[in-house]
User: Fold these one by one.
Assistant:
Number 1:
Amino acid sequence: MRLRNKSWAKPLIEAHPDMITVTPLGMQGKWQERFAQNQPLMLEVGSGKGKFITEMAAAHPELNFIALELQEVAIAYVLRKQVELELPNLQLILGDGANLTEYFAPAEVTGVYLNFSDPWPKTRHEKRRLTYKSFLDQYKAIMHKDGVLQFKTDNQGLFEYSLVSMNNYGMKFDMVSLDLHNDARVVDNIETEYEHKFSSRGGRIYQLVARY
Amino acid sequence: MRLRNKSWAKPLIEAHPDMITVTPLGMQGKWQERFAQNQPLMLEVGSGKGKFITEMAAAHPELNFIALELQEVAIAYVLRKQVELELPNLQLILGDGANLTEYFAPAEVTGVYLNFSDPWPKTRHEKRRLTYKSFLDQYKAIMHKDGVLQFKTDNQGLFEYSLVSMNNYGMKFDMVSLDLHNDARVVDNIETEYEHKFSSRGGRIYQLVARY
């Protein structure tokens, strides 16, 4: 979802270099230095306005979190939350999900979250979907061998595609939910902004948890 | 679904040894002899009353079909249809889906259909589900290496389970549909009795097509 520009976004980002890194280069293998504690690192690719990642970080002080987002305005909204919350286990990146291997070292990341990514429904845009094989290559390259990829979407076509794509890639499924919000197995789901709105109107949420 | 016994069932079966085989032993590798033509063999495990398999056989004269069913009354309903239709590419088996490797030789079967199998929702009954790994072992043992397994269900829990089970087994997904009856990719779906009723009341049908 493209957001309207905000004049406060860029100055806010520039004022908080301790909380946010812009297009991080030379940071590979060094992310733990930016956190209060050295603990497993979880990355959300495409954080939007950050409801999910800030609530996850608050609920899981035993893990470190990074919110990665391409849109300056969106990550500025996440930053605004973090300026208020000052979570010691949350860092932000303004950067491109297509460049993960430039940002992270092999095995540096333990978990990857993909939440309500753009479905890119047209066949000619398949390569832009965050579950296309070139992206799966990237997650694999930066993830610990025991790491887990968690993917949520409301988009039926993207979920069908992603089940086939991740299966064909050779990933191992841990869990599939075809109706996450009515799934007795799930007790600790944290919603994104979009998920909350969509689900409150009765829409189904799908989830796949898989590993390499 | 368990059907009420019918007094005509057993005599009908006994009267048509050319169309139906009861607990076939010694038939491994010889099924083609029972058909008018030697052509790829498709097996439905759990045929119920046979709407699906008889319509498939009528629509695809270029393939041979076998309806396998454990319940005598149910297979007798299929037989009643076949006595009327006399399809040269359809054979019936009254037998147990747990004994496939006793009935068929390796690579004898090209396609396996699982339609609206009993979901066995209790965890302690997992081993009875037709997509449990011991059943996947059996299909693999009798299937040609290019063979395809097509699985349809309306049961969300069984579909979630089967996606994980078949993925963990190492099967390769060709196609997933989370709403088969509204899927633009599918133009030739043939319904079972149950599917027709369930779907006409607005229920969702799931489909997975996979290979070994």
Number 2:
Amino acid sequence: MLKAAFPGSFDPPTLGHINIIQRAAAIFDELLVVVAENRRKKYLFSAEERVSIMQKLTVDRDNVTVALCDSLIVDFLQKREIGILLRGVRGLDDFSYEFELSMMNRALDSRIETLFMTTDPKYIVLRSSAIKELASFHGNISNMVPPLVAEALEAKYR
Amino acid sequence: MLKAAFPGSFDPPTLGHINIIQRAAAIFDELLVVVAENRRKKYLFSAEERVSIMQKLTVDRDNVTVALCDSLIVDFLQKREIGILLRGVRGLDDFSYEFELSMMNRALDSRIETLFMTTDPKYIVLRSSAIKELASFHGNISNMVPPLVAEALEAKYR
Amino acid sequence: MLKAAFPGSFDPPTLGHINIIQRAAAIFDELLVVVAENRRKKYLFSAEERVSIMQKLTVDRDNVTVALCDSLIVDFLQKREIGILLRGVRGLDDFSYEFELSMMNRALDSRIETLFMTTDPKYIVLRSSAIKELASFHGNISNMVPPLVAEALEAKYR
Amino acid sequence: MLKAAFPGSFDPPTLGHINIIQRAAAIFDELLVVVAENRRKKYLFSAEERVSIMQKLTVDRDNVTVALCDSLIVDFLQKREIGILLRGVRGLDDFSYEFELSMMNRALDSRIETLFMTTDPKYIVLRSSAIKELASFHGNISNMVPPLVAEALEAKYR
Amino acid sequence: MLKAAFPGSFDPPTLGHINIIQRAAAIFDELLVVVAENRRKKYLFSAEERVSIMQKLTVDRDNVTVALCDSLIVDFLQKREIGILLRGVRGLDDFSYEFELSMMNRALDSRIETLFMTTDPKYIVLRSSAIKELASFHGNISNMVPPLVAEALEAKYR
Amino acid sequence: MLKAAFPGSFDPPTLGHINIIQRAAAIFDELLVVVAENRRKKYLFSAEERVSIMQKLTVDRDNVTVALCDSLIVDFLQKREIGILLRGVRGLDDFSYEFELSMMNRALDSRIETLFMTTDPKYIVLRSSAIKELASFHGNISNMVPPLVAEALEAKYR
């Protein structure tokens, strides 16, 4: 049985993240969506809010679960005996960062393999930080995030 | 009549920005230099200072005007019925960011087209943030910015 | 009156090229599609075939014309008094090449400005060379090129 | 049961390819190494030689098999009911090409997912074309390819 | 006699930095390791700590000395009559930034030449900021930094 | 005494190459310009022509000599006891290729260090292949190559 973890800040998740989750859930037997929490970073949505959003967005997928990780991702995966770390890549810039991260994770634990999937072209433009800025200007983000995220963003920036 | 907008932070403008403005003013019937103000960002020069600097730097160009934008740029352009958003690109790094931005702006309003011009090679090195750092160390920036900007930077870092 | 030229090999044109032409024809008063012919390069379609294809694909656009160029593009534009060279860019790789080309063209004639437009995300994947390889394997290219190009490719690889 | 295909020219395979195969064989239930043959390309080793080399190099892996593909890879995978196309990526340049290829393959058959693994840092330098050039100059390639490939290259360039 | 300076934040130094220093010390007659201090930036280790660490790490190299620079690097080099600025590059992202920096430094003083060395592949993954994050999570960094740096990081994050 | 080698095809040399040679000759005690000849590649100018051109272009530099290399560059440098391989880099694309090449050369002989210098911005645009194409169209290349190269190109394409 092949388990994979899909970690991210998801602050907030975009339609691109959902696209990766749906495609990954069709490949792997089990997919764990990992909401990463780093006390040194600032988030718009709290860890609890982000976990709750991800749970609502994946509720119809039997083989997808959601967990919070506030430690090192390789330690987190070891404890759960998950050997595959899945990452979505929107283009060259993303990959440059991910490439280095994957090598560092392998340096920490060589049993954990990082696999990359590329975002579908229509979602290439969706970056959480840009969507937050857009929402802060009350721009129309309805084609960029799931409806419940759009509502949550509106509530934050009202 | 072809109108184009050239938005930027211009905090402060460099000789590279002036180069783009001069070349763009020769192409388009009207060029609107748009000083972007985002309340979430920190600037060295206030919005008013930046507008004033840009007005002084373009005073000899009849078809160039300057405006302030503190909302979403696509909304700003719609209201003024400007369909062309012009961006200067200094190289691959700039383009990577601009490419994504242009796609997001088209997702927001497909009638607004982004056109890119490349900076002349001799201005490739000029980045506002690096020039500010240089000025803070009292480095010689006289070949990087117009004289009035050099004076304004000196005043800030005295 | 603002005239722009859109040069390319168009061997063959893709839906991405057509997308750029339609958007550019809406911006500029006149758009000249320039079929580039370089005797040192090998093409699948002859210069005459490529000009004929481009004429058929742009026949419904009043302000679009097609011409053949087998000399230096800057000389070609000078003679026709066209000051804008328009290029479509599909992403970073394209831009890297185009950036250099635009600087070289400006070194040859500083009055000719290159403007770049980015391809819509759904056409990012369309590269003429890859489509030819696909067609040679009888892959389904109907969503990648206009119908008459699909037929022309099938005829070539039958 | 999760099957993946790992296609490549393998002309010849490097230690980097072998590294990807070993790591992939540990993840997936079955791994099909696909030797790609394109009649329009020139190879140093014939398709038969490349298949034979890959078979010898993977003989100790029970869940790895080798096949030849001279048609479109998506058609090849459909017939074998393999939904995962695995690609090794050595860095940004590789990824740029692979990113586009993966999007084109998804445009051809949206059920086939491309997953990327990154080459271990010590193999980043290994590119088949560079190794062939090195071998043609009788350079020392013993740390770059498996011993049987080193011998095969020596035989070719004697 | 050829003198070179190797500037950096070294906050903290990694095995990659040490690798560059060792290789550079074998090439140049004298190597000055320059600890850069910018009052506008935040460091984990103070300037004094970083100078002390670099001195301990280079104590066995006769032709390597360490100095602190809190002014413009080109002014610093002029005063010491050092004409070569050496930079280590881990890959494309580093180079993109360094390329611009080197051109700006030449614009400031054309007599100062920047030379680049590439980090050995096994150190490509080592970035000071990532190592600090890792240390903050109590990850195993013993293969990434010299022992005294590992201890210093542990002390900081205890 | 610090010796460096500057290898290249120089088919033909551009003002960018000359710029690197002049700056390098001011740094190193001796500079050996190495004209690379690879029997598998096609050149416009023969090895003898390229050596002769480079000799004429460097005749006024006492510490610059020219040699032909038709073997592996690391073997060539070993025999001459030259430990520094100097490469000029015009930007990210060049560097990507050079980065890999430098790592491969270190894999072949770890005593040979590659150092990179960046081309001055005004020469960034100069690529030998593009200049040849330009010359073939009788474009004006007088600002791109030394006068004797311009004449040699004209003679070739007459």
